[in-house]
Design a protein that fits this description.
415 residues; alpha+beta; Helix Hairpins; Glucose Permease (Domain IIA); 2 domains; 11-stranded mixed beta sheet; two-stranded antiparallel sheet; 15 strands; binds zinc ion
């Protein structure tokens, strides 16, 4: 900031302030699942675009690699060519040396040269003119032969050296090109990894958006056009469990206990093995109305062959949350989210073996848990149920066979 004038600083402060005032306005805009889906589409398109770019860059990289390979081969070829020329030059040099030696030997053998003597000495040593001519021509021919031969070979060496120079020039050119290609290859590699990073972060964004959309659809049941904040507020209101004061009431009129909570034996059903019974069996006349045991909110309505229609209601009694469960019902009259009170008929007592694979006689299987199912816990309520006798007033069970846990209690007429 040192090099900014006071005026510039002032302007910058104004700009920053305006930005901070303008930005919150963006957030006011309502957002819907439809908006999120559009955003998701855009992100997926962006992901595809990056992926395509990455694929193209990889293709480009491969092409460069091919060029590098071709150049490598060419470099080897040129090296070999140069090496060959080098060998030929050495061979020619050897030949020149050999030739030179050979000529020297011939001259020596013919005693043309003695020690430091020159051709002239040989020539002027002629005994007569004819001999002189002869000697002169021999000397000339020898020197001419010698010269022609070495000239020829020197010329060949020169040609090869020119060729070598050309090869060296080519080598320099190719190695410069190779360096450039390798730099290009590295750059493309960096580009690919950059694009891959972008792809992975884009994928994270896509996953987050998808999870968000799924949660809004499945947990909050928002529609595509509903404002998300409003939808969440609606869902929050919907998980509200109405508070009540007072005690639980028995869920059926004019009924009796036929089995206690705990281990019991049902002859002919499981042999004589005691079975865990997570509920109490309450038997009213066939088709009796079943009532909610206390005010609350219906949190689960299911149907299955073992248990028939099953309803769970979450309660908030005197500030403590409970769940009551109602099994073997022939029919249920409530839906998830319904608010119920003591007088709400939630279904009809069933339990006939013809209608329920887990029951042998007309009764309600009734259970209670501590805590609200789907708010405080999410396991099968039967696995966390407690003894209903601790929260309800039920007459004692008179067991048919002591220790079997089944029989009949006295009948109650009021809930
Ligand atoms: Zn039962």
């Amino acid at each position: 900031m040192k090099y900014l004038s006071n005026g510039t600083r002032f302007m910058l402060a104004i700009v920053l302030l305006s930005v901070s005032f303008i930005c919150p306005a963006y957030r006011v805009k309502a957002q819907t699942i439809g908006d999120l889906k559009k955003e998701l589409d855009a992100k997926e398109a962006e992901y595809k675009r990056i992926e395509e770019q990455k694929n193209l860059t990889e293709q480009e990289k491969e092409a460069v690699q091919k060029k590098i390979k071709i150049n490598e081969d060419r470099i080897v070829e040129l090296y070999q060519e140069n090496q060959k020329l080098e060998e030929e030059i050495a061979e020619l040099n050897e030949k020149i040396a050999a030739k030179y030696q050979e000529i020297k030997n011939i001259i020596n053998t013919n005693q043309i040269m003695n020690g430091e003597n020159s051709y002239l000495e040989y020539i002027f040593g002629a005994s007569n003119f004819a001999d002189f001519i002869y000697r002169a021509s021999v000397a000339e021919q020898l020197s001419k032969y010698n010269k022609e031969l070495t000239d020829q070979m020197s010329k060949e060496i020169e040609e090869r050296e020119v060729k070598q120079k050309e090869i060296e020039a080519k080598q320099n050119e190719i190695s410069a090109l190779q360096q450039e290609l390798q730099a290009q290859y590295a750059r493309l590699g960096q580009k690919v990894s950059g694009l891959m990073e972008e792809m992975s972060s884009e994928l994270d964004n896509i996953k987050m958006l998808k999870d968000n959309i799924a949660s809004l659809q499945n947990t909050y049941h928002c529609s595509d056009t509903e404002d998300i904040d409003e939808c969440k507020e609606r869902a929050r209101r919907a998980t509200y469990i109405p508070a009540s004061t007072g005690a639980f009431k028995r869920p059926i009129n004019n009924a009796m206990v036929t089995a206690n909570y705990g281990y019991y034996i049902v002859p002919g059903v499981w042999g004589y093995n005691p079975q865990w019974h997570a509920a109490m069996d309450l038997a009213g006349p066939n088709g009796s109305s079943i009532y909610a045991a206390a005010p609350g909110r219906v949190v689960s309505v299911t149907h299955q062959s073992c248990g028939n229609n099953i309803v769970y209601i979450a309660h908030n009694v005197n500030g403590t949350r409970y769940t009551t469960g109602y099994w073997h019902m022939r029919a249920s009259y409530v839906s998830v989210g319904d608010l119920v009170d003591y007088n709400t008929v939630i279904g009809v007592q069933g339990g006939g073996s013809w209608e329920d694979s887990c029951s042998t006689g007309y009764h309600l299987d009734f259970l209670i848990t501590l805590g609200a199912y789907k708010t405080d816990y999410f396991v099968n309520p039967r696995s966390v149920s407690v003894n209903p006798r601790n929260y309800f007033s039920f007459p004692p069970l008179i067991e048919n066979n002591p220790g079997w846990g089944t029989g009949y209690s006295t009948r109650w007429y009021e809930r």
